[in-house]
Design goal:
Number of helices: 11
Strand order of the largest sheet: 3-4-5-8-9-10-11-12
Shape: globular
Strand content: 15-25%
Amino acid sequence: MERRTIGAAALEVGAVGLGCMPMSWAYTASRQRGEESLRAVHTALDQGSTLLDTADMYGPFTNELLVGRVLKERRSDAFVSTKVGLLVGEQHIVANGRPGYVRRACDASLRRLQTDVIDLYQLHRADPEVPVEETWGAMADLVTAGKVRSLGLCAVGARSGRRSGARLHDGTIRQLERVQQVFPISAVEAELSVWSTEALDALLPWCAVRGVGFLSAMPLGNGFLTGTLTPGEGFEPDDVRARHPRFTAEMMAANQPIVAGLRRIARRHGDEVTPAQVALAWVLAQGSQVVPVPGTKQERWVDENARAAGLRLTAADLAEVSALPGARGSWD
């Protein structure tokens, strides 16, 4: 697989990563099977999808434990990214960016992941009660201590809190400008897909100018862009899509032209090419520092996603994607 570089430290990863969250968090719990997930992670590494993206809150904790079982055997094959800054309660999630907590959380993640060092340690969300510089400084100390190789930041996700007239990622860029004064940032993780293109406006250009890697979260639109979901089929109550405005039966039906367009492009590239691969190839085409991190817990999808790294879209293909109708039913 093609290799891509993350950040000024020139950390290399496979062009397509693996989001491990669905293996133990946010998606259908009845379909979460540990052994199947382990096989999926091994398949990703076999295919060159070296970046494994997890977080301590996924589970909570169980996702890191699962990834750790693979790292114990194949640490040299993997680039491990995990996150800190969010605590999961009974019915809520809260931020914690206190330096002492960050240090303890890192040590706990290292134990669960069964490794001596985390390749990319990301701040999941900034704590509104703690200056982000203090949190970032504690994370930088972990680099100095040899427990972490590089630092990353996840984009602010609360669209509903956006100021009137502000772009989606203005808050994230303000955070980036602040933490960059403390310690260099190697990567930013934010949603980017055919049906969620807001990162192209300002966030991705900010990263490109500064040599910062960009991890594309949800590059397959939470599964919608694969063309495998049926409108009206419904989701289990614990599935995040059960509460997502784009996954109502009405909005899924209304957004089918997007999938149809991806399927049309796929057919031009061969019978074996899928809409999901076209969606990932589009993300890859947005810049040499962009690494899509599709989440899955099944081997067959891991294999399909990895093969998207070899798909090259033409200028006509990219123009056709740009001409597709915008997604309906957004968070706004």
